[in-house]
Amino acid sequence: LWVSHQLDKDQKKFVFNLAEIEYINSSGLNVFIKIFTRIRNNGGELVFCQVPDKINKLLLITKLNNIFNIHDSEEEAIAHLLG
Prior knowledge:
Elements: H1 2-8, E1 13-17, H2 26-41, E2 45-49, H3 53-61, E3 69-71, H4 74-82
Parallel strand pairs: 1-2, 2-3
């Protein structure tokens, strides 16, 4: 997994731009949760940005929007990580 490789290289901050995601199911959400947990357990932080409305609604319904840090733009996400 790319994230594991980056964590092994001591990278701690990640931005996932979801602009191109058109559909996600429970398996996809589970992958996000596992990646988020792995990053957090290694002292890192994951930020999502440019989440399409359809995906954002799913995150609201599942209340994952309270767990994931979500920003409108990539610039805002990066600024959050650097701030």
